[in-house]
Design brief:
elongated, 6-stranded mixed β-sheet, alpha/beta, 16 helices, single chain, about 450 residues, 4-stranded antiparallel β-sheet
Length: about 450
């Protein structure tokens, strides 16, 4: 009797899988993916997650799905009598417990992915509850066989060419910053991904540069490649020296201020700068010279009156200035700041940016990421605009003077430029490839 029930269960399971394959095949076609992915266990679920823009969940779902299928196969070879035995083998008990965990995990992630697909196809969220009770197969069949179409098709970066390469290479300068990034790649879940490609520019000394781009455009990756924190396939030349080849020496010539400050609240301002000086100034510099540098930085950033105050007692603006001073202590030639004005009101942000402008006026290169550029745009000389092309790779859409950028993008506001190049599913105009290629044409004359 039990054996007959199990055989019936397996037959029903095969039918359900066949229907699931049919439904997912049609979903993949609607999402402009290869339909045959639906016949490969595990990878079928991963591709479904990519359709729903839930790739991270899809990775777990892939592993759990493969485990589910392995458990199903193992069950086919287990002697039925073992389940009826009074002394069930220990390994079988462990397998049953393992299978239970796998089944629960598979259920949870299947609901998560189905939830993403329901959103993708614009169905009411009540369908998620429907999926919980009847399973994912009927939902997959409905989404695949009905006339419903996905509201957004998430780009598969492996199936398109993206914007054409520029063919540009910046000539290395004896002074200033030369950036020639061929590409920056990572291996992510057995797949090589290109984060940045084809970025070339020369930045003159004394220039304050705005780094602009939407979320995921590659701003942080670009900054990390330029400062040597995450080296790319690139040539970065600062004042005639190769940053990558001479990194031990050149790292003192580059200052980077992250968005989150690293100030210890129970230290005084002066002590904080003293500790920063020990880390940021080469050991070859004498103690007297180091102390002179600390004092000059305190004065330059207006921190002398609060030098004995605990960092926890500083105002927001003072704390920001201290974070900047900690990196500026080494007197870098290139100074990069990630949203230094975040959390500051308009007046304080303006004051901070004017301080950065004064640093640039000393012959330094100051590169700033900010999400509120228009309130201080008059302080910048140049703007770097990065965007994701149709291959989802960070590309250079423009580098040059601010006023020329407005003409290039036909925008008066920097924030509007971001909307020009953002993808349509991100609320933008989806014109990144157009401007990438337009910029290449301008550079090539």
């Amino acid at each position: 009797m039990l054996e007959s029930l199990i055989e019936s269960y397996l037959i029903i399971e095969i039918i359900i899988i066949a229907l699931y394959i049919l439904g997912t095949w049609k979903i993949f076609i609607k999402c402009q993916k290869k339909g045959w992915w639906s016949i490969i266990p595990g990878f079928r679920e991963y591709q479904l997650a990519k359709c729903a823009d839930r790739e991270t969940d899809g990775r777990v779902y892939l592993v759990v799905s493969i485990m589910t299928y392995i458990c199903t196969v193992i069950n086919m070879f287990i002697d039925i009598e073992l389940y009826n035995s009074d002394n069930m083998p220990f390994l079988l008990v462990m397998f049953i417990l393992f299978e239970l965990v796998v089944v629960i995990a598979h259920f949870v992630y299947s609901v998560r992915i189905i939830s993403g697909l329901i959103t993708l196809f614009g169905l009411n969220r009540k369908w998620v509850l429907f999926a919980v009770f009847i399973g994912s197969t009927p939902i997959a069949l409905y989404l695949g066989l009905s006339k419903k179409q996905p509201r957004v098709i998430y780009v598969d970066e492996t199936n398109n060419k993206g914007a054409a390469l520029s063919g540009i290479k910046a000539k290395a300068m004896d002074s200033g910053l030369t950036v020639n990034i061929e590409d920056r790649t990572i291996t992510d879940f057995f797949k090589k991904r290109t984060l940045l490609r084809d970025i070339h520019m020369n930045i003159q000394p004394g220039h304050m540069v705005l780094l602009l781009g939407g979320s995921g455009a590659g701003k942080t990756t670009f900054v990390n490649a330029v400062n040597g924190y995450e080296m790319a396939n690139a040539e970065i030349i600062l004042n005639g020296s190769d940053l990558y080849k001479e990194y031990k020496k050149m790292k003192y010539k580059v200052g980077f201020v992250p968005q989150m400050d690293l100030v210890r609240g129970n230290d005084t301002v002066e002590r904080t700068l003293y500790d920063a000086a020990k880390l940021r100034i080469p050991v070859s510099v004498s103690k007297d010279e180091r102390n002179k540098r600390i004092w000059s930085v305190l004065q330059f950033f207006g921190l002398e009156p609060v030098k004995d105050r605990l960092c926890d007692k500083l105002s927001g603006g003072q704390r920001k200035r201290l974070s900047i001073a900690m990196e500026y202590i080494s007197n870098p030639d290139l100074f990069i700041l990630d949203e230094p004005d975040s959390g500051l009101d308009g007046v304080m942000a303006r004051e901070l940016m004017e301080g950065l402008r004064s640093i640039a006026d000393q012959g330094k290169i100051v590169m700033v990421i900010t999400h509120s550029p228009d309130r201080v745009i008059d302080l910048f000389d140049d703007v770097i605009v990065l965007a994701k092309d149709s291959k989802l790779t960070g590309r250079l859409t423009y580098f040059g003077p601010v006023e020329e950028a407005k003409s290039f993008f036909d925008c008066e506001l920097m924030e509007r430029i971001v909307l020009r190049i953002n993808r349509k599913e991100e609320g933008g105009d989806g014109r990144a490839d157009e401007f990438i290629e337009k910029y290449a044409e301008v550079c090539n004359g």
